[in-house]
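Researcher: Here's a chain I'd like modeled. Treat it as a single chain, no partners, no ligands.
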Amino acid sequence: MPSKTLHIPAEWTPHQAIWTAWPSHANLWEDDLAGARQEVAAMIRALAKGDTIKVLACGAEAVASADIILDDVAEVIPAEFGDIWLRDTGPIFAIDNGQCVALRFRNNGWGGKYVLPGDDAVGDLVVSAAGVNAQYNDFILEGGALEHNGEGIVLTTRQCLLNPNRNPGWTEAIAEAKLKAALNCEKVLWLDDGLANDHTDGHIDNLARFIAPDTVLCQSASGDDDPNAGVYDSIAAALQGFGFTVHRIPSPGLVVDDAGEAMPASHMNFLIGNATVVVPVYNTRYGKDAVEALKPLFPHHTVVGLSSRHLLTGGGSFHCITQQEPAVTD
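Model: Modeled as a single isolated chain. Structure tokens:
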């Protein structure tokens, strides 16, 4: 049980490090392996202008490729893991009584859809490598399912947290009690559904992101064929109903896979580094507009749009593959 001093800092507060993972398994990434590695490398180089980057790589070939491509921009750490989605499989870092701690949760492969060897244990490896103490919680939770404002408010979705494929029998009341006990948060606010064909069952980091304690960013539809137009409008209305200041930027619009099915592309899956905000773009005409709309909202950061089209074939983007370790400040 955490102490009453535990809190999860907002993502825009100073970091001790950013943890990420290197695309390592050719059987998972197939033809997108090389492209995914280049996209992760571009993200790391952008973030390294203000952050210390720790990169897990699985297997001798992956470690060697990371060492060569990254060229000392980041620390490469050999590790066993299933895939690179460290936001979900790794710990959630917090500050408790002036010390950084790691909150650990159970993982069941996003509701049993992608159960991979090592994903249930990689969080402990991060804890050990970070040299922090862990606090263990006996329920299933992915970090991408929660969005924190740094002052005790958590945003999440019913589609994910109340899904019986995670914690059967959970109601809103049970989920709120569990989160408040584990995170020492004061309030849990609920949105409904996530993006079309999102295998995470509606992770919040594709939908709405805090950029200040009282300010939330979400998307607006792009193009007449945007498959999530109704979802975006419902999210904005709910956030305004909560009393937040709400900013909207263009979505990527319709992005399809090789079979013509809509993919869960989102400009919300950005990462706020110490000096740089890295925004995923997907080779649609709306990416530049989204990045330009973000720049005045982050006046103290460099905002860059980087391709994430290959990463998207695995179901996520830059926020999904990272986890920030907060700096301990006075």
